[in-house]
Amino acid sequence: MMKHSSILNFDSDERIDIGTYLLEQINDYMTNIHEIPISPELNVDSVKAHALKLSFEHPVNARKAIDHILEGLRQYQVHTPHPRYFGLYNPRPNFMGILADTITAAFNPQLAAWSHAPIAVEVENYVLKEIASKFGYSAETADGTFTTGGAEANLTAVLTALTHHFPSYAKEGLRSLPVHPVMYASAESHHSLVKAARSSGLGTDSLRIIRTDSEMHIDVRALHHQIQVDRDAGYTPFLIIATGGTTGAGVIDPINEIANLAEREQLWLHVDAAYGGAAVFVPELRDLLHGIDRADSITFDAHKWMSVPMGAGIYITRHKDILHKAFSITADYMPKEGADLDVIDPFTHSIQWSRRFIGLKVYLSLVTAGWEGYHSILQHQTEMGNLLRRELGRSNWKVVNDTVLPVICFTDPDIQSKSQSHFTSYICQEVLRSGQAWISVYEINKVSVLRACITNYDTTEDDILVLIQLLNGARAKYLE
Ligand SMILES: *Cc1c(COP(=O)(O)O)cnc(C)c1O
Hints:
Elements: H1 6-9, H2 12-32, H3 44-52, H4 62-75, H5 95-107, H6 118-134, E1 143-147, H7 150-165, H8 169-172, E2 180-186, H9 192-199, E3 207-210, H10 220-232, E4 235-243, H11 255-265, E5 268-272, E6 297-301, E7 313-317, H12 322-327, H13 359-394, E8 398-399, E9 407-411, H14 413-419, H15 421-434, E10 440-444, E11 447-453, H16 461-479
């Protein structure tokens, strides 16, 4: 029979032994990842069999448990840390970020109340203020909170905008309002806004989807028109969401122009810059988001272009009091030691209550790489995107989206026009089947095209050339 305390705790030597072993395995994964097939075979039976293999009736030792799950992960997942994962905005997590999540788990600071984890809360505040300043907010008046991701940040935006415009919303709910609030986002905006419309109680009909122009920006004239139509019909517009780098094609809405409209119409402007927001860290790119400092609030995901592990979302606002108005609450069972101090308990400023130290992975990444380090990484990834565009052109592929960000949508229009979507899905499947790269398919103006995004700071020129070879090979095979 095991000693009681060592059932969950292990003893000191065992911890070092298992921990060292795990670190070696992680290092092996990070070093040799390009040697494993990037995407798994989707065989439901064998995945389930692996998941169910070990039993809770007959516990195994730690090393066996770790080996089992690492084998499962190596075999049965898309390897987003792979340098030729040209996928959605899932980065290769940086090493300090990986360590940060371990530290967070071990020290387990409880970020609900300031007094329970003062250092963690102040580190997060420091990071939030720095990032808010990069977006052009004044550090004094900016406020914000770390979230699980962009979806929670977008929900926070809807709730704060409602609270700002309709002071009775928090207490009496939407039912109490004599008006029907409506909000606006483009057809290319992220679908987490649909969920936010549901969970805020507004309902999805209150989310007006505005058409995009031929280059997939929100059509500002259509937006303006819809606001007028809604006002005339008795609705009450309160919120515009602009996207600072769409999920589909990396397109950035004309934020400054939308800010002018929001100002004239007295609407809350939220900019969803979950991915593209990092452009403000690069002097050469920051103009892409011109006007973002005029937004009332911003969504930014550090787990996208800042290459920290999931989940690290950020909601920031230039309205110092709005998070308090939306989320503050007092509860008898919460610690009171901080009551007389000039500090804020995070649970009064956020949807979450018990909360892990999300900000540590951003802090440790920033404090070791520095803004300078991020500058050069983001620039490198942007250059790799440009290289991919050039190489695609040289091989007679046509890029069909217009963005400076390293998100490239492309097709071969001659073949495409004859075969519709069949060609695109064929090429995508061939690339995935090779195990050498991961790309996806996206629909632009009703045409299905291929999509490759540089999400990995380790992607090199050679990786781009391998992708081009795979694409050309797949096309030749299609034409055989
Ligand atoms: C990824 C993304 C989201 C959702 O963020 P999660 O972190 O996945 O919750 C929202 N908006 C945009 C523009 C995104 O790219």
